[in-house]
């Protein structure tokens, strides 16, 4: 009981240490209470039509097909005649929420937003939608609500389809985009007979937002090179063409509508996103209409050396790349005065944020030139950073004291555990009692029932592994035929997951029987989460660990000192061979290194926990196909550190624990809250990996203690004794 309490306290301490980095490094940089700043000059457009094709790669849109023809003829004509184009560079993590926030709110979210997923705002932020007169949105229920929540007034209207339609096993996910186009066309047609709606549409500062999720869903389900993904692009192109025609006709071709077509992120060839591969970070950007430059022909080579212009056959059209969330002046077809006023408003807006942070009330500053505006922005950002990190040193010192205190406590526990002479005495008494009980049991024939029942849970787990090997194959075939996830396969998968930690408790606590039962139970779950040859990893690793266990047992038996006797418990007043002492030291170091090797191999053998945000949803298709980020993410988090528990490794946990704690301090000071998302994510990943390993070691020890020492009896029988 004391051991379990020790593990629980240690787990709580490390969870607190883990959460501390979000209070120290990753509090939201947003401030509230500023007055919105606007340019005094009238904007060139009265309305904006924003179309975001979720998951659309730049090359999928721009690159001609094998026949040399384009998949999106209308958008291609916009690039060649009426609009400007380029590549929008996203940041890691390449997910839907941060991509849309960068596009619509103009800032990159801090890491704290991850805790709220896609559906809520950890802090309320301003956006283009909030500053508009009216905004009408159509699309996914995962994206639209986060911009409607917190908007001042009731001028942001959202129209979404049911979440159940976001099914990766759907016969055709392009119907999600068809629904959006149909709803928008119906909305525009209704305005012709609804005078109140038409009056609202005729006003300025209106936004129409279309979120198209079909391409992303088809990419996850069928991969970006599939016919479903490419045909979805054609559907979107024709839908945009028809929609633009209706908008221009509704407003009498007044030339006051601006159009933006882009994507929040791309997708890898294997159908995932979240990391920083160019296929994930390069997205298309097309802008045309009011206030935008038309297509510009060039004859000289452009500054881009990535080779895409030649591959896409666009060398003769001016390409303007942007960073997602940053509006470049090269796209604007307006006067220098308008551009200068826009930069001035931007500078004043950032200065207002600094005032709120500094708690200032009045500060009259006159800015006369664009260069002075840029200088002011730099100083204001420095001030924001200073006050944002004001308490970091104090909190960091507190965490360091906590780390060192916990490490010292662990060392004391280790010393107390090893120097206690009563431990060996109780172990001897316990072994004597167990041997005595065993001899008594041998006199009772009823125990034969026990020996006969022992293989039952083991063999049950083996008929189980075979079923779990068949379920992914059956599920894959069903999805290939577009028949959805079979209900029987889904029930088997969830039942297997729920019983995987309970079934081993039915087997004997003898080492081999219990380890075999644990291996079979957990392998069954891992098979259901596997997508290919990775299913061979647990059996190979388990076989290697079993061989290591046997080698260690042989080595311990060959020593002159008891195999369970540790170096720190030897009585050095006796005459002990110094060679044996040296050998014990070497063996202790060797076992610790082997322990760390097996933990790291099991943790990183088939996937990197730092890239969990770019997981392949195909891994969870045996459990569900309808998009649910929390359940899918939870299943992936269960798969990556999937436990391979061995009874003999438990004794080594405390020996390496303090070494891992010292590593945590090192990575704690290397956490960054500046630079690119990739730099920030890498620093967080290092700290989280080391912290997770410590927490994982503690949970591993606790689960090992339960799984190897506990046993569940489903029934009791009265013991009968015979003469």
TrEMBL record:
Pfam families: Phosphodiest (PF01663), PigN (PF04987). Keywords: Endoplasmic reticulum, Glycoprotein, GPI-anchor biosynthesis, Membrane, Transferase, Transmembrane, Transmembrane helix. It is a multi-pass membrane protein. It is an enzyme of class 2 (transferase). It is found in: Endoplasmic reticulum membrane. GO terms for molecular function: mannose-ethanolamine phosphotransferase activity. Ethanolamine phosphate transferase involved in glycosylphosphatidylinositol-anchor biosynthesis. Transfers ethanolamine phosphate to the first alpha-1,4-linked mannose of the glycosylphosphatidylinositol precursor of GPI-anchor. This is GPI ethanolamine phosphate transferase 1. It comes from Oncorhynchus tshawytscha (Chinook salmon). The lineage of its organism: Eukaryota, Metazoa, Chordata, Craniata, Vertebrata.
